[in-house]
TrEMBL record:
Database matches in SUPFAM superfamilies: PRTase-like (SSF53271)
Domain of life assignment: Bacteria
Upper taxonomic lineage: Bacteria, Bacillati, Actinomycetota, Actinomycetes, Kitasatosporales
Protein name: Phosphoribosyltransferase
Signal peptide, first to last residue: none
Species name: Streptomyces tremellae
InterPro entries: ComF/GntX_DNA_util-trans, PRTase-like
PANTHER family: DNA UTILIZATION PROTEIN YHGH (PTHR47505:SF1)
Length: 238
């Protein structure tokens, strides 16, 4: 019942911009530009966790971008999935440009815990990934969402944990679901998430995907996110 009410509420036109509070719009032009009008670019956590693939972010996690992400994920404003998906699609294009790799783009969402999904009433990352895949297809790039990662053990809440603690907390926590390994070989895999802080979640997701794929698979992994911390990350605009 709770999820149903969130679905209905998220489709109702908000009375104020989710980014800045401007009236009579769900997301104003200025906040849209902050979300997907300036970046994307490569980001690198400091310190960088072992095994982290190249990561591109659509925007820095601050101001309007932070507000929009929180409104979608925590308050269930589901109408924001489309602009967030457009931002994520731009980051995917940047980290896996057209003409590189073979086959379609396979967007693999980093899974939230079942506890978090139940509390929020929706899977925000998967919803944004679906919107991003639609944006990419409309731009002429074959893409689909491949939700093959799952939690194989319980983990503690990442909030408040330092970078090293997050790595320990997530080590070995993810796996590719049965039958997923075969699907991973059908195209270029891009791990996707809404936010990257220390890179621990993406590094663990990459480990799980590499473990499931054939040992001789030389296909490179990449990762794309909506936002990255501008404090804990070095930014490479090249």
């Amino acid at each position: 019942m709770r999820g149903w009410w969130r679905e209905i509420g998220g489709l109702v036109l908000p009375v104020a911009c989710a980014g800045c509070g401007s009236p009579r719009t769900s997301l104003c032009g200025e906040c849209r530009r902050e979300l997907y009008g300036a970046w994307p670019c490569r980001v690198r956590p400091s310190p960088e966790p072992p095994g982290l693939p190249p990561v591109c972010a659509a925007a820095p996690y601050e101001d309007a971008v932070r507000a929009v992400l929180l409104a979608h994920k925590e308050r269930g404003v589901l109408g924001l999935a489309q602009p967030l998906g457009r931002a994520l699609a731009g980051a995917v294009d940047a980290v896996a440009p057209p003409g590189t790799g073979t086959g379609p783009l396979l967007l693999v969402p980093v899974p939230s815990t079942s506890r978090a999904v139940a509390a929020r009433g929706h899977d925000g990352v998967r919803r944004v990934a679906v919107a991003a895949a639609g944006e990419l297809r409309r731009a002429g790039r074959p893409a689909r969402v491949l939700p093959v990662l799952r939690q194989r053990r319980a983990v503690a809440d990442q909030a408040g944990l330092a970078a090293r603690q997050r790595l320990v907390n997530l080590a070995g926590a993810l796996e590719v679901a049965g039958g997923g390994a075969r699907l991973l070989g059908a195209g270029r895999v891009v791990l996707v998430d809404d936010l990257v802080t220390t890179g621990a979640s993406l590094a663990e997701a990459a480990r799980a995907v590499r473990a499931a794929r054939d040992a001789d698979s030389g296909a490179p992994l990449a990762a794309a996110v909506v936002a990255a911390s501008s404090v804990s990350f070095e930014i490479n605009r090249n």
